[in-house]
Amino acid sequence: MKNNNPNQTAVKKNFTSKTSSKRSGINSLENSLNAILKPIFSSTKKEFVIINNLIKNWPEIIGKKYSKFCHPQLVNFNKDHKSAKLTIVAYNSAISFFIENNSELILERIASLYGFKTINKITVKQQPKNIKINQDFIKLSSSDEQIIQNKIQKITDQSLAQTIADLGRDIIHSSKKITKTS
Question: So what's the pLDDT on residue 174?
């Protein structure tokens, strides 16, 4: 017996489409990961391999001193897939200037890494970013440390208090160095 009621048919169709599109376990996890990672790896495999190698070898290409202040972001191939453009993100204008002026040297280092000239052009994109430079913790005498702690005890913002304490340690340490050499 056939049911001709359109409301029941619509409910049945909605129910079957919802249950068939839902997957459980590994398939749904795999689909979720693909949805997340697809925009990241949307370029070709060749571009992915090149950018991955550039990121791994970046300190050797640009220099350890400058690698903290910039990174390779994107490799774009021309339509013929023979030449490519590298986009580098720099965190300040001085590094951008350095990269622009030394782009030929950087291109040569990249070519020596791959054994052939893969990148023909470098573009620099400036993007501000706060960079923490690893500095050794300055050890002061207990009396100097107590002076700093007394000065920052009323500061409620812990980040600000830590920054001021570090600055105080650096100032006290520097002033003691100056008095020793004088």
Answer: 77
Range of the domain at 91: 37-126
Question: Please, where are the H alpha helices in the chain?
Answer: 6-21, 26-37, 45-56, 58-62, 64-67, 93-101, 103-114, 142-152, 158-181
Residues 115 and 175 grouped into a single domain: no
- Token pair, residue 162, equals 């830590």
> Which residue shows structure tokens 């398939």?
27
Strand partners, 86: 75, 122
Instruction: Identify the CATH number of the domain in which residue 46 sits.
Output: 3.30.300
Note the pTM of the prediction, 2 decimals: 0.49
Q: Are residues 119 and 49 both part of a single domain?
A: yes
Q: Which positions of the chain have pLDDT values less than 50? A: 8-21, 23
Give the model's pLDDT for residue 9. Answer: 47
Nearest Cα residue to 83 out of 124, 46, 113, 53: 46
pLDDT of residue 74: 86
Q: Which of 163, 175, 28, 51 is nearest to 113 (CA)?
A: 51
